[in-house]
Structure prediction request, 433 residues.
Amino acid sequence: MNLYSLLQKRESANNPVRVVLIGAGKFGSMYLAQARHTPGIRIRAICDLAPDRARASLARTGWSAEEIARTLITEDTEKEIAHPETEVVIDATGNPAVGIHNVLACCKHRKHIVMVNVEADALAGPLLARRAQEAGIVYSLAYGDQPALICELVDWARAAGFTVIAAGKGTKYLPAYHASTPKTVWGHYGFNDEMVAKGDFNAQMFNSFLDGTKSAIEMAAVANATGLTPARDGLAFPPCGVDDLPRVLRPKGVGGSLEHAGQVEVISSLERDGRPVFRDLRWGVYVTFAAGHEYVRRCFNEYGIVTDSTGEYAAMYKPSHLIGLELGISVASAAVRGEATGSATGWRGDAVATAKRALKAGEMLDGEGGYTVWGKLMAAVDSKAKGALPIGLAHRVKLKRDLPEGATVTWDDVEYDKDSEAVKVRREMEAML
Prediction:
């Protein structure tokens, strides 16, 4: 609760935390909007393959012409990570291979790294976190993004002495969405052609949120950071509003929807017939936990905590998240406390490539949010046993054989570059963990 005062001390000492932002897209822009108002923080450099876009992001988020002129904008990421003044690096690229490369560079030059790039974390986070620990730097999930906020709720519950039953987030989900493509995505969102034409929308990115891929990626990150685990068949997306969290997010043996206690799960803001869930949690995160004793159950009742009918299971939730506007919490935590806002501690969950339709030998997979595959959450032990191809490496690889709809794509099913850095790191993680 003293991050602000610690940042003020850095400001007073004329020793601000110097930050390099890699990627000035939406998430990065939201952080830039707040960084200029935060004492003890300085943007040392912005690295982006489109410098003009980075300048436009600064102007759009309120930076003056003079401030923009003083800010270093460059494509040379390696140089800025290595710069002696750089203290914290933010990877907001969303590209898993690029993210892995940037983390390894931060390890080499001993710079703290905040991973907005949850795609890279889901692909190889457990090994990257280990490398960072060996280098003596902080490797952190990004506060403001849902995985870090879920980790915070889990940590709160455990630090208060509760047994965590489930944790996760809300999203808009129907089973048919797994087959959604960039061509069909806007209809599911209710966007017409005019809205799409006027907006700055990336169809494949939006589709990754809709088809279940982003949920699988984020819950893999949460499982790896918290010790919670996926159900054997992945995410079930039960419809659930905030008032029903303790009833729905409890084990099946006591009337809930969970395969086991200690599970990651995503809840849907839509009933299976498409009707909206009452008081949904589409933009938020939650944790459910157990009382464990009659005295605690009485306390829940006395203080108005919503529980299931037995009084044993309760929930806390955050109704929304502010994305990059909250990212400064991770930057400050890494720099002035030496703490991560969520970081992998083991390999427990994986997001694996799954055929959206019947696929033919010779087809090129197009990765997250595309036309060919979606990412399904799987327990890491099952992913390794099946030789499953992670969704983060299912882009621009050719199929060697036909696959039916719903099939898990394996390493043996595709032609891939064994010499790529991302493949080597992933395979090393599979062998080690």
Notes: The CA atoms of residues 350 and 378 lie 5 Å apart. The mean pLDDT is 97. The first strand starts at residue 17 and ends at 22. The chain has three domains: 3-144+325-337, 147-173+212-320, 349-432.
